[in-house]
Amino acid sequence: MLYIVIPVFNRKDFTRACLDSLRQQTTTAFRVVVVDDGSTDGTGQMLCQDFPEVLLEEGDGNLFWTAGVNLGIRRALAEGATQVMTLNNDVLTAPDFVAQMQAVAAQHPTAVLGALELDVSTGQPVYGGETLDWRTNTRRDLLETLPPEQRRGLHPVTYLPGRGLLIPRRVLETIGLFDEKRLPHYLADFDYTSVARRHGFPVYCNYDARLSTYPEESGQEITRRQRSLRGYYQHLFGIRGGGNLRNFTHFSLKNCPRPYLPYFLLNGYARRLVGYFLH
What we know:
The chain is built from eleven helices and twelve strands. The protein has a five-stranded mixed beta sheet with strand order 3-2-1-4-11, with helices on both faces. The chain folds into two domains: 2-216, Spore Coat Polysaccharide Biosynthesis Protein SpsA, Chain A (Alpha-Beta Complex); 221-278, no CATH class. The chain is of the alpha/beta class. Belongs to the glycosyltransferase 2 family. It comes from Hymenobacter swuensis DY53. Keywords: Glycosyltransferase, Transferase.
């Protein structure tokens, strides 16, 4: 059985829309676990009243993404999950999303799978996975190189985000949960899928499974739109900071091949120090 784990903190309208999209799936062979990390906007009441089928776990507001996901995964495993999917609340799932993911999972039972992401306002693809050259710290966005007629099926990638990430139980039993101690928020998903790939589990983006996202609502985009010295500090050192130097260091030490590590670190630090003002 597939269990979908959704960590939330406020923004109940996004959560409602996400759960409504899951109710419209062409298959019902899954359950949903929502981890409400101390929301103050009535999210908990809404879940109990309007979505009684959802399994609810609660935090005190200090879980952030990684610990919240891990709490939900533990609940899913205790319920007997054979697959776990992490899903952000600010996404909408296409009606055949779960069916498309499960069809591929049946053919590739040890694979970690992600989905093609579309802009909710335009319907255009915005993320389809990427590959990373550790030697030069350069990324290749698959959407920039794949012609439209090839935007289907499976494509191998270096890592995947946690928005619609399907993880077989065997992967969880082999490499454990997400690294909540060293990567409490950003990069935990890229780290986890990188570790899984190094342990021999295939990592694919499934272009036949589609999510709609709100690119302008991501934490990084909001921070960059409100540029300030305080925002710059949060970008580099805050738990939710997309350029957090400590998180990047942990990710690099864990995943970058040792011969390439010095340049990878220096290049990454430079990008984070100046990138806040360039985007």
